[in-house]
Amino acid sequence: MKTNDHFLTIIRWIARISGLLLVAFTIFMAVGYSLEERQRHPDAPFLSGLAPLVIITFIVWGLGLVGLLLGWWKEKQGGFLSLACFILVFILSLLNREGRSALRPMLVFSIPSVLFIFHWLMTPETMPPGKGETRPGPS
Questions:
Q1: In angstroms, what CA-CA distances link 74 with 19, 93, 128?
Q2: Please, what is the Cα angle at 16 between 74 and 77, to 5 degrees?
Q3: Selection from 65, 71, 105, 102 nearest residue 85 by Cα
Q4: Which residue, among 68, 71, 70, 103, has the nearest Cα to 87 in the 3D structure?
Q5: Among 27, 34, 115, 137, which is most exposed with the fewest C-beta within 10 angstroms?
């Protein structure tokens, strides 16, 4: 195994594990928050106290988490989907006065996305051939 291959394998696994931990953490926090709200206000409808912008932000955030899971199989698609969603969540949080405290933590969610994209860019199949190299065509 070449040093570059070993480095890319480490990058891929860091992206996978950190993405999975972030998804698990988010699910854990969402379930805990939902249970606490249900205990405080048992008769209130689900998501009744949230503004529409906050609900949209949570939906986009959920799509970003799906992108992190997709990155396990397809680094390019998962990385770009999650990064785009987390950038959109960042922008939506700027528009929401109550959501500004989530700006810095949202940057942490983007790290696995960037690593997935970096891994996809650095794999030999996606890199352009060097000077004098030829790549076999599809068979």
A1: 13, 28, 19
A2: 25
A3: 65
A4: 103
A5: 137
Q: What is the pLDDT along the chain (139 residues), one digit of tens a residue?
A: 566 788 999 999 999 999 999 999 999 988 888 788 777 777 766 666 677 888 888 899 999 999 999 999 999 999 999 999 999 988 888 887 766 666 777 788 899 999 999 999 998 776 666 665 555 555 4
DSSP structure string for 80-123: HHHHHHHHHHHHHHHH-SGGGGGHHHHHHHHHHHHHHHHHHHHS
Task: Please tell me whether the overall predicted TM-score, pTM, comes out greater than 0.90 for this model.
Answer: no
Residue 54 Cα distances to 15, 21, 39, 84, 98, angstroms = 27, 23, 21, 18, 9
Tokens found for residue 21: 């931990």
30's tokens:
């969402």
